[in-house]
Structure formats: structure tokens, C-alpha cells
Amino acid sequence: MRLATNLAAALTASFLILATSPAALASTHETTADLAEQSRMLAPRATKAYLMVQQGINPETGRRLLAESVSRLDQNLAALRSAKLDDTAHAKLSAVETRWSSVRARLTAAPDATGAKALYDDTEALQTATQHLAMAINSTGSEDARRLTLPARMRLLSQRIGMFYLYRDSGLMTPNAPTMELSYARSEFSANLVRIRRNDALPADTRRAVEALNQVWSDYDGAAGKPGTPGELKKNAPAVMEMSEQVLGATEKLVVSLLGPARP
């Protein structure tokens, strides 16, 4: 019960940051670019929540997270549709919307093994489409706008880790592929965090956000990568899901600190 309560609190905190972060943005272009990047993260987050429900891991919290993630992705795509995009970005957005239509149908159906297995590839395709959209938007922006690329990638990775942790012991496939993807995501997150911590030019509020992220990342990395029997992995899953939301919230705060006006 305590883990379920903590997960609900972590979910609420991270989602409040997701919902309010655009107000802190420095420019219309950065708002648009971050909506695309945030949508990219919401794809594995929604699938992670779907798997929580399907596997019986804090299912009520999983249902709430799933509904909120789907709603937020709907809102982001609607905002992007009304944004000032060039022809290339509009074409990429149309591709995202096509992918999202089929993924959304699976996510909003009753979770089952068939849907979970299909979402493994479908989620990857949606992430790729949103990546291409973000790249198209960023290609017309200033160099400053691209400072978000690394932390936005880490935001995505935080949810890929949680998703692949659940796929690893799902019984839907051999564990080799999700185990490899989990390892890649953890390694890349760690490497990116090291790169950011070495940047001495960051303003003070961003440095504080980086150190706060570093503190919660260590536990998440260790828990997600800890080997164990299928039973042990499932037993530890609620704690790992809680940590995934904590790391997402900390990563989102880092993004917000970069989007807002720089302070010494």
C-alpha cells in the first residue's frame, strides 16, 4: 500500500510538471519543439502504464497514468496542429498522427497480452515518427533552442527504461531484446548525465536541477538493472515504476530550467 501511495504521489508530481512546463518556455519555437519532444516521451510512458495494468502492478495507478498520458499526447498533437510549422514539419506531424491513431486505439482498449505484444513494435514506430517531427522543428530553430536535445532525450530514456523493465519479464517474448534495450537506455542516460554535469556554463538553477536528477537517478539505475528471477523482478516492479516517475519529474525540471530565462 505504501508503494502504491508513493507511486501515485510521484506520478502526480511529474505530471503536474509536464502539464505546466510550457508556461515557462522562452520562445514560441521552443514551446513547439518541446511539445514534439514531450510527445516522444509520452509514447513509452503510456505503454509502461498499459503494462502495469496488464501485469497487475499497481493497476489503479497504472490506469490513471495511462489516461493522463493519452490525454496529454492528444493535447500536444492538437497544439502542434495549430502551431506555425513549415511544410516539412507539417508532413512529419501528419505521420505522427497516423501512427498515434492506431497506437491510441490499442492503449485505450482493455489491456491484454495481445495488445501488450503489439505495442512493443508500435511504440517504437511512434517514437521514431515523433523524433522525425522534433528534428524537423529543430532544424529551423536557433542553436540555443537545440540545448534541449540532450535533456529531452534523457526524459524519453527514463520511460524507455521503465517500459523495457516490464517487457523483460512479461513472458510475451524472449527476454533478450528488452534486456538489451534496457541496458542501452540505462547506459545512454548515465553517459548523458555525465556530459551535462561537466558543463560549467550552466546557470545556477540548471546546475541544481542536474544535481537533483543525479540523486534520484542512481537508485533508479541500480534497481532497473538489478538481475533477478522472474518472481524477484515482478516483486521489485512497483518500486522501479515509482522511481521511473521520480526520475521523469527530475528530468522535466531540468528541461524547464533550460527553457526559462537564464539566471546566474
Automatic annotation (TrEMBL):
Domain NarX-like N-terminal: 38-118
Its membrane topology: Multi-pass membrane protein
Keyword Iron: no
Residue runs in coiled coils: none
Signal peptide segment: 1-26
Superkingdom, natural source: Bacteria
Subcellular location: Membrane
UniProt xrefs under InterPro entries: NarX-like_N
GO CC, one annotated term: membrane
Keyword terms, alphabetized: Membrane, Signal, Transmembrane, Transmembrane helix
Record protein name field: NarX-like N-terminal domain-containing protein
Taxonomic lineage: Bacteria, Pseudomonadati, Pseudomonadota, Betaproteobacteria, Rhodocyclales
